[in-house]
């Protein structure tokens, strides 16, 4: 399988973490692409031109990150990252929440790269509120991110890591001490350390 990634992409980081956590390194070839470069192979795999994108051994293209993560998880029954039980919907909803943090953070980063006079205050405030409300929700329900490793935890690790990497001025730890403690422990996992964009 080929997995198109970018070193700094938090969405690709989720997929790379799943590869490591599921022990799939031998089966997945990582292909680094800057999605803003002309990359015909990436666009062939994903017409949206975004990373991550996965091409399976029989040539099927799979995206976006939640679908790739679910596909990779299904390749082996060992250590399921999406539980089969009633917990399934809770885990997938928690993953959606952390993906939403990423969307709001990524939009903010892109908006900040535009000329100052073209930036929208309204959208930046809206994205910052969504980020803070969502980390508040995590802080209030950290139990949902404990226990056996799941896509909820992988998503949260990628999301908080991205806030640190690209938006440190948001200082998310200040109002979220329990989440900060969770993150400090979670970053010890080899899958977090091996995919650290700053590493
Ligand atoms: N919802 C997608 C988002 C992927 C995404 O936006 N990736 C960024 C890199 S962090 C990208 O490729 N951006 C290029 C673009 O938007 O054209 C996912 O979960 O995979």
Residue share in helix: 40-55%
Strand arrangement across the biggest beta sheet: 2-1-3-4
**N/C terminus separation:** 25 Å
Molecules bound to protein: glutathione
Order of helices and strands: EHEHEEHHHHHH
Features:
199 residues; alpha+beta; 4-stranded mixed sheet; 8 helices; 52% helix; globular; binds glutathione
Brief rundown of the structure:
This protein has 199 residues and is of the alpha+beta class.
Describe what this molecule looks like in 3D:
The protein is an alpha+beta fold and 199 residues long. The chain is 52% helix and 7% strand. It contains eight helices and four strands, in the order βαβαββαααααα. The protein has helices at residues 10-21, 40-45, 65-73, 87-112, 121-140, 151-166, 177-186, 190-193; strands spanning 2-5, 29-32, 53-55, 61-62. A four-stranded mixed sheet has the order 2-1-3-4. The radius of gyration is 17 Å and the shape is globular. The two termini are 25 Å apart. The relative contact order is 0.15. The mean pLDDT is 97. Residues 6, 9, 11, 35, 49-52, 64-65, 99, 106 line the site of glutathione. Glutathione binds at residues 6, 9, 11, 35, 49-52, 64-65, 99, 106.
